[in-house]
Specification:
Length: 298
C-alpha cells in the first residue's frame, strides 16, 4: 500500500511522541522491598524497583480536564497536588512446580532501580527465575530484562508476552536493544491464553497493542495483575474516565479502565497494581466519585 509521504511522516512523529511520553519518567531512589503474600499454595511477592513521580502538568494525568481539575480532586483526597507518586516494580510468583515466575522487571538498571536487591531480599537469584511474564513493553516493565551492560539479566528465563505486544516491542526504537538481547528467549501467546499452570493472560486493551494482565489462581484464591490498566490509586480510580497520557490508544484505554474497574469492584477481585503504593495488593471499592483503593497489606 502506498502512503502519502506527509501522512507517513506525521504518523511517525506521532508514534515517536507517544513513545517518548511512555518513557519520559524520572525514577526516584527507593529502598528494596519484597513482601510475601500467601495465595492458596502459592506465594506472591511484590518486588519494588523504584518510584516515578509524575508532575501534575497535564501531560499524563487528566490530559482532557487539565491540571487545575486534577489538583482540585487531589485536594479533596488530602493528596499533594503538584506531583502524582507512582510505584515501579514487579510481582514474583513461587509455588508452581519447577517454576520461579516474575511478572515485569521494572526500569533499566542504569536508572538505579532496586529490583535485583528486592529479589535478593526474597531469596531469589537472577539464575533462579524460569519464566518472565511481561504485561507490556514500556521501559518501566521491560527495562530490567537486561543488565547495565545490555546483556540478558535472567540467564535461564523464558520471556513470555502476547504476540501483538512482541510485535510492538520489536518495532519501537526505545526497546530495540532489549528486543535484540532477549529475542532468542521470547515465547509469545495469543491474547487471553493460559500461559503457565495456574496463570492465564487477560487482554486489557488500549494501553499498548498487546497489553495483558495475568490472573493467578491457586485453589479457591486468585489475584489479578492489572498491569497499567490504572496508574494512580487516587486519580485512575476516582476518575477512570480521565485521559491518561501513557495510553497508546487513549479512548480504548479509558473504556478498558471503566469496564475492568466496574468488574473488579463488582466481584471483589483481589488485584496487584504495579504502580499503586507498594506493595500494591488490595481491592477496588465503589466510592464517590468512581472508586477507591483498599490495600490488603501495608
Ligand atoms: Zn507502567
Amino acid at each position: 500500500m502506498r502512503v502519502a509521504p506527509f501522512t507517513l511522516a506525521l504518523s511517525l512523529v506521532l508514534a515517536a511522541a507517544a513513545g517518548a511520553a511512555a518513557f519520559a519518567q524520572t525514577p526516584a531512589p527507593v529502598a528494596p522491598a519484597a513482601q510475601d503474600v500467601r495465595l492458596g499454595a502459592l506465594r506472591v511477592t511484590p518486588v519494588r524497583d523504584g518510584a516515578n513521580p509524575v508532575p501534575n502538568d497535564g501531560s499524563v494525568f487528566g490530559k482532557d480536564v487539565g491540571p487545575a481539575a486534577v489538583a482540585a480532586f487531589l485536594r479533596t483526597k488530602g493528596q499533594p497536588t503538584d506531583t502524582i507518586p507512582l510505584n515501579v516494580g514487579g510481582l514474583l510468583v513461587r509455588g508452581i512446580p519447577g517454576r520461579v515466575v516474575l511478572i515485569d522487571t521494572g526500569n533499566d538498571p542504569k536508572k538505579g532501580g532496586q529490583l535485583m536487591a528486592s529479589l535478593a531480599r526474597a531469596g531469589v537469584r537472577p539464575g533462579d527465575v524460569t519464566d518472565i511474564l511481561i504485561t507490556h513493553g514500556h521501559g518501566d516493565h521491560i527495562g530490567g530484562l537486561v543488565d547495565a551492560s545490555g546483556r540478558r539479566a535472567f540467564p535461564r528465563a523464558t520471556v513470555r508476552m502476547s504476540a501483538p505486544e512482541w510485535a510492538y516491542v520489536r518495532t519501537q526504537d526505545a526497546s530495540k536493544e532489549i528486543a535484540g538481547a532477549i529475542s532468542a528467549r521470547v515465547r509469545t501467546f495469543a491474547p487471553g491464553a493460559a500461559v503457565l499452570p495456574g496463570i492465564v493472560a487477560v487482554p486489557l486493551r488500549g494501553h499498548t497493542p498487546g497489553h495483558s494482565g495475568y490472573r493467578i489462581t491457586s485453589g479457591r484464591q486468585s489475584l489479578l495483575d492489572i498491569g497499567d490498566t490504572a496508574h494512580s490509586s487516587v486519580i485512575s480510580l476516582g476518575h477512570p474516565e480521565w485521559t491518561i497520557g501513557y495510553d497508546g490508544n487513549k479512548m480504548l484505554g479509558e473504556r478498558t479502565r471503566i469496564t475492568e474497574l466496574a468488574r473488579i469492584a463488582g466481584t471483589g477481585t483481589l488485584i496487584f497494581a504495579p504502580h499503586f503504593p507498594y506493595p500494591g495488593i488490595g481491592r477496588v471499592v465503589r466510592s464517590r466519585p468512581g472508586y477507591a483503593w483498599q490495600p490488603a497489606l501495608r
